[in-house]
Amino acid sequence: MGIREDVYYEGGPHVGELIFGLIIGLTIVALPLTVGAIVRALWLRYRITNRRITITGGWLGRDRTDIIYSEIVKIAKVPRGLGAWGDMVLTLRDGSRLELRAVPKFREIYEYINDKVALKNPKVSATADN
User: Fold this and answer.
1) Structure pTM?
2) Which residues contact 86 (CB under 8 A, 6 or more apart)?
3) DSSP letter, residue 35
4) The sheet that has 63-68: what strands, in order across it?
5) Over the stretch 74-84, which tens digit does the pLDDT of each residue have?
6) Phi-psi map region of 102: left, alpha, beta (phi>0 left; psi -120 to 50 alpha)
7) E strand or H helix that includes residue 67
């Protein structure tokens, strides 16, 4: 039997990003942004548990990334969509960065991840004071 994980959030990007992308897609200039929003809406999924963050994405949802909280050293958040959703960048111990785009309830999820990072990695301050 595997280790039990309590799921805090499981789902895709905020639907507002898709709506906004479709609206600005009416202009030819913003078509790449619209395509990006559609691809994220179709295939990007987040799963945030008490043990890890899992991101499934890529073309047809074939790429999967799992990050445990002890690997995170810094979190930065940026609100978008008038604060209804936001982006987060997780800086990992090896210096690489993982971007979470159009996260719904991003303030609550940021606090949850930050609390878990502080418990698993007490020597490192996870906040980026945003």
Assistant:
1) 0.83
2) 77, 78, 79, 80, 102, 103, 106, 107, 110
3) H
4) 7-11, 45-49, 52-57, 63-68
5) 999 999 888 88
6) left
7) strand 63-68
